[in-house]
C-alpha cells in the first residue's frame, strides 16, 4: 500500500513542490536506489534529500513508557526560587522541559523572580542544583547587572556556608564573578529582533551546552509597547515563538520562563464590566505549560498564585523581595 506524501511531517511548500513534480507517494520519492534525483534537488533546500532523513520521516513515531516518564519526573531537579512557600506550590520549583509564564502588574516581582532564577540555576549539583547557565532575553531594558550581582553574592554566601557544613570542597570556582559570567544577555528591540533571537538560541546552546534556563522578560512588551501588528499576525508570531521554545525545552531539557503583563479585558456577557487578565490574549494561556500570577499585597509583600499547572492545583504563597533576592516571610 502506497503512503501519500501528505501524511509526512513536511513543510507545506515542500509538499506542494513534490506534488507539482509528480511525486504523490513516498514510494515515488525513495526506492531501493535511494532518493530520486529530481526529488533530491527539490528537498535540498530543507536538508531532507538524504535517504536517512526519509527513513526517519516514514518510520513510526517513537513511543514513551508512562512509568519511565513518571520516574524521570520524580527524580528530575527543578530550579528553586529561594522561597520554600513558592517552591511548594510549584511542586519543587521551576521545572525543566516546559514553559512557565510569570504574569503580573508592574512591581509584582516578575523581573526580580527572573533574575533570581538566573542565579539559582547555577547552584552546584552537590547541593541539589542544576549547575547550569542562563540566557536572559531583555525586551524592555529591565536587566540590572547591579541587582543580579547582589543576588549572586547572597547566593554564594549561603551556598558556601552549606558546603562547609556538609564538608563539600568543590566550590572553588563558584563565586559571584562566575555566576555573572554564566548569564548570557540578549537585548532586543522590536518583534523582528525577538523572532531572530529565538531562532539563534539553538546555535547559542550548541556553543554553551551548560545552558539550562532561557528567560524572556517580557514577551508582551514588543507587541504592546513597540511595533504595531494586527491580531492575526500577533497570534502567529507568538505561536511561532512558543513553538520554537517548546521544542528547544524538550530537546535540550531546558527550563523556559517568560514574563507577561496584565491588561484589561472587557466581559462581553456583562455590560460595563471588565477584569485584569494576562496580555496577548487567551491563546497564550493554552500554549504555556504553567502560569504563575504575581501580585503585591499589604505590607510591601508579594503573593504568587498558580493559575495553571499540569502537576499543581490552584494554590497561593507569600514571599518578599529583599536585598538578597526572593525570600520567605
Molecular structure report:
- By secondary structure, the chain is α/β, with parallel strands linked by helices.
- It is built from 14 helices and 13 strands.
- The strands form three sheets. Strands 5-4-6-7-3-10-11-12-13 form a nine-stranded mixed beta sheet, with helices on both faces. A two-stranded antiparallel sheet has the order 1-2.
- Helix 7 crosses helix 8 and helix 10 packs parallel to helix 13.
- One of its GO terms (molecular function) is four-way junction DNA binding.
- It holds the Pfam family Rad51.
Uncertain runs: none
CATH superfamily of the largest domain: P-loop containing nucleotide triphosphate hydrolases
Mean pLDDT metric: 86
Main structural class = alpha/beta
Q: Strand-residue fraction?
A: 15-25%
Give me the number of helical elements.
Answer: 14
* Gyration radius from CA atoms, angstroms: 23 Å
Number of domains: 2
Note the run of SSEs as H and E.
HHEEHHHHEHEHHEHHEHHEEEHEEEE
Number-wise, the strands total 13
Described by the principal axes of the CA atoms, the overall outline is globular
Give a quick set of tags describing it.
329 residues; alpha/beta; Rossmann fold; 2 domains; 9-stranded mixed sheet; two-stranded antiparallel ribbon; 14 helices; 13 strands; globular; four-way junction DNA binding; nucleus; DNA repair; ATP-dependent DNA damage sensor activity; DNA_recomb/repair_RecA-like
Amino acid at each position: 500500500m502506497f503512503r501519500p506524501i501528505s501524511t509526512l511531517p513536511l513543510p507545506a511548500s515542500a509538499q506542494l513542490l513534490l506534488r507539482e513534480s509528480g511525486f504523490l507517494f513516498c514510494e515515488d520519492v525513495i526506492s531501493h536506489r535511494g532518493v530520486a534525483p529530481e526529488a533530491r534537488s527539490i528537498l535540498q533546500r530543507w536538508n531532507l534529500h538524504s535517504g536517512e532523513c526519509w527513513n526517519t520521516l516514514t518510520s513510526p513515531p517513537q513511543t514513551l513508557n508512562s512509568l519511565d516518564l513518571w520516574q524521570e519526573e520524580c527524580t528530575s531537579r527543578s530550579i528553586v526560587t529561594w522561597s520554600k512557600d513558592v517552591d511548594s506550590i510549584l511542586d519543587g520549583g521551576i521545572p525543566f522541559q516546559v514553559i512557565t509564564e510569570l504574569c503580573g502588574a508592574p512591581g509584582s516581582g516578575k523581573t526580580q523572580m527572573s533574575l533570581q532564577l538566573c542565579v539559582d540555576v547555577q547552584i552546584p549539583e552537590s547541593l541539589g542544583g542544576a549547575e547550569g547557565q542562563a540566557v536572559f532575553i531583555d525586551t524592555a531594558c529591565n536587566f540590572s547587572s547591579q541587582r543580579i550581582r547582589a543576588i549572586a553574592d547572597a547566593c554564594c554566601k549561603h551556598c558556601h556556608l552549606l558546603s562547609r557544613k556538609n564538608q563539600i570542597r568543590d566550590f572553588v570556582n563558584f563565586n559571584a564573578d562566575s555566576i555573572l559570567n554564566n548569564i548570557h544577555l540578549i537585548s532586543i528591540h522590536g518583534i523582528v529582533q525577538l523572532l531572530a533571537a529565538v531562532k539563534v538560541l539553538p546555535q547559542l546552546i550548541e556553543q554553551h551546552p551548560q545552558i539550562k534556563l532561557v528567560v524572556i522578560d517580557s514577551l508582551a512588551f514588543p507587541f504592546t509597547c513597540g511595533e504595531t501588528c494586527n491580531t492575526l499576525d500577533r497570534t502567529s508570531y507568538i505561536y511561532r515563538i512558543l513553538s520554537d521554545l517548546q521544542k528547544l525545552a524538550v530537546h535540550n531539557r531546558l527550563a523556559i520562563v517568560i514574563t507577561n503583563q496584565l491588561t484589561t479585558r472587557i466581559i462581553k456577557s456583562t455590560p460595563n464590566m471588565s477584569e485584569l487578565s494576562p496580555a496577548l490574549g487567551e491563546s497564550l494561556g493554552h500554549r504555556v505549560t504553567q502560569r504563575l500570577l504575581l501580585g503585591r499585597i499589604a505590607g510591601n509583600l508579594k503573593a504568587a498564585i498558580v493559575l495553571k499547572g499540569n502537576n499543581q492545583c490552584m494554590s497561593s504563597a507569600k514571599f518578599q523581595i529583599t536585598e538578597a533576592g526572593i525570600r520567605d516571610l
